[in-house]
Amino acid sequence: MKKLVVLFAVGFLTAGAAMAQKKQVFKFDSFENVDLDGNIRIFLEQGREAEVEIEAKRESHLDEYKVEVRGNTLYVQHYEPDRFRSAPKIHVYLKHPGIREMDVDGLIYIYSNDTVESESLRIKGDGLIRGDIVVNVGYLRVALDGLCTMTISGQADETDLRLDGMGKIRAQDLDTRVISKSADGLASIRVGGR
């Protein structure tokens, strides 16, 4: 009986280890821009130093993404030569001293674990884009194209929201003084503001 219990425990622990997330951590000099391409869930957190932690279910999924900083931009991009194979999902935990621009393409979810603070923040997205972010910025521009749902809250002195395609931008809890918005297709933008 003891052997059976030990074998069961070893099997359970081995299965748990096999199901554990695979992880890579990168430390970079400061950057202000982020360019994402693939099937990515990104979690933003303000911090003193730039650090990127990437998790996936398999090591091979991590190998399909290239992570580098060129110029002033962090790139996390899927690069699989087989165009007919979909990009595996990864989670990116990004600690940053401040982000000014995000250019995202693919199946992207953007979340802020805390308030994104910057002079300005521009988010440009193409594809299936979802997100929930809190900001404290002087100028905010969000331009999304595709099937998109984004919730934005916090504060921005000036806001420019654009949505092309199908979806919605919810910004009722965004405190802003000046707002410009444009929605084309089956799209809606809801705002609050002063």
UniProtKB/TrEMBL annotation:
Span of domain Putative auto-transporter adhesin head GIN: 31-191
Domain of life: Bacteria
Signal sequence residues: 1-20
Keyword set, alphabetical order: Signal
InterPro entries, per the entry: DUF2807
Key word DNA repair present: no
Name of the protein described by the UniProt record: Putative auto-transporter adhesin head GIN domain-containing protein
